Amino acid sequence: MSNTTISTFLQQDKRWQVGLFISGGLLLAGLLLYILIRTLGWFEPSYVLVFYTQSAESLLVGMPIRLSGLPIGNVTEITLEEDTHVQVKIKIKTEYQRWIKPDSNATLMAEGLFGDHFIQITASKKTTPPLSDGAMITFIPASNMSDFVPQLKERLFPLLEEMQSLATHLKSPDGQLNHTLSEAQQLMHELRSTRQQIDKLLIASTGLAEKKLPASLAHLNTTLIEFKNLAQSADTQLFASTQKLQTTLSKFEQTGEHANASLQEMRLLLQETRPSLHKLLQDSDLLIRNGNTTISNMHEHWPFSGESKPASMPETLPP
After folding, report:
1. 261-270 long-range contacts, Cβ below 8 Å, gap at least 24?
2. I need a labelling partner for 140 at 20 to 30 A (CA). Which of 98, 222, 233, 311 fits?
């Protein structure tokens, strides 16, 4: 590749770079212009309202107009009339026209106490037609610092006087503060004495614990050993008693088994002898009835009845 070809290629490369740079700059400028147009609303449908005020103080061209906190336009013109009144023209987006009616008003507001100013328009809820292009809207000027200072003075001075009176009362020797401070000092003195007594009591308690506590612990240890021995003895006796109790229970169980067997045998014996006993009882009952009948007959006939002998019977028997 020759030097001429390389030089031509570099020149073409620079042209491309310059072209790209210019195109980027134009694109950026167009974007900024578009943002500016959207911000200022140059090509958005709008209409103009007018209001009058005594002073143009705090009013600026380009000042934002708000409706319920939303930006809807800005101030386009401020002129001084022949009668020294100030005429202010505001441009508002047409889409918000339906909420601005004859009973609406414009008020000069500020962001906070020392923030930027803006014009706030109140929205109307009535069914009347909205204000048309070029109509006049009522303007309510904002309260300036000259109106605010007297109000602040009326509220602040009584408060300062009360604070001064309170400070004088506190500085007085017979005031409540000095009395409270003296009581606090007396209380601190009493607390200091109480702390000294508590320290002495703690020292005495420590000495008593050092002297009596080891002996008490030794006595407690001896008592625990005796209790352990007693528990072991009781355990041994309990084991022996348990063995005896088990033996007794075993014997009682055997006796119960024998008694159960005897009851079974008696039950079988009763079942076997029940028919014989029943027949015997019936025979005895019949025998008793016959005996009763015989005795009754004997009582009714001679010689057991006690009557005289019959007439047909001879007095003496033949020889």
Report:
1. none
2. 98
- Whether a cis peptide bond, with omega within 30° of 0, leads into 173 is no
Cβ contact 181:171 at 8 Å = no
**Strand, helix or coil for residue 243:** helix
Element (DSSP H or E) covering residue 74:
strand 70-80
> Containing H/E element for 104?
none
- What's the mean pLDDT in 213-220? 74
Among residues 138, 123, 141, the alpha carbon closest in space to that of 69 is found at 123
At 109-149, the pLDDT tens digits run: 888 766 788 999 999 888 899 999 999 999 988 665 555 55
Query: Of the spans 28-37, 53-62, 186-195, 293-302, which averages the highest pLDDT?
Result: 53-62
Phi, psi of 122 (to 5 degrees): -85, 140
Residue 285 CA neighbour count, 13 Å, CB half: 6
> Which long-range contacts does 61-67 make (Cβ < 8 Å, 24+ apart)?
63/117, 63/118, 63/119, 64/118, 64/119, 65/90, 65/92, 65/106, 65/118, 65/119, 65/121, 66/109, 66/118, 66/119, 66/120, 66/121, 67/96, 67/99, 67/100, 67/120, 67/121, 67/123
Instruction: Specify the 3-state DSSP secondary structure of 143.
Output: coil
| Residue 249 DSSP SS3 | helix
Q: What percent of the chain has pLDDT over 90?
A: 21
Smallest CA-to-CA distance from 108 within 86, 140, 133, 77 is with 140
CA end-to-end distance (rounded Å), the chain: 206
Using the 8-state DSSP alphabet, how is residue 136 labeled?
A: B
Rounded distance between C-alpha atoms, residue 57 and residue 141, angstroms: 10
